[in-house]
Amino acid sequence: MSRAEIAETVAKPFPVLVKGEVVAGFGRGGKQLGIPTANLATEAVERALENMDIGVYLGWAQVEGGAVMPMVMSLGWNPYFKNEKRSGEVHIMHAFKDDFYGKTLRIAVLAFVRPERDYASLDALVADIREDIRIAHEALEQPDYAQIKQSPFFGS
Is 131 one of the catalytic residues? Predict the structure, then answer.
């Protein structure tokens, strides 16, 4: 991993477990970036993630009882796009055939990857997201991170 801040074990305050409805976002993830996101309802972001730093996180995600898959999440204002409200946008590392608006999304946030940044170009933003995804895949292979995939949180 190039972002050495990610520990080999899950450390406090993690894991942060969040459950919320998938809502329509700005439509940028898949269309503009080629990296589709599931957007958490504002209530879920405010309630569960209010004390977390703005930035990118990694962990596990599950859409309505399906398989548990790796994810990265952007929590923040997305300055490149000049958002006016904080959002939680989850990129599940899987190619879904259909959207899943209105479905329940469960995420286990396990580690902070990096702070939110502004970018001079869309290409620079996409390059950083791709690096976040690489780091997440690598971190989630570590036993302490991998075991959380089996958490009862995903079975209930």
Answer: no
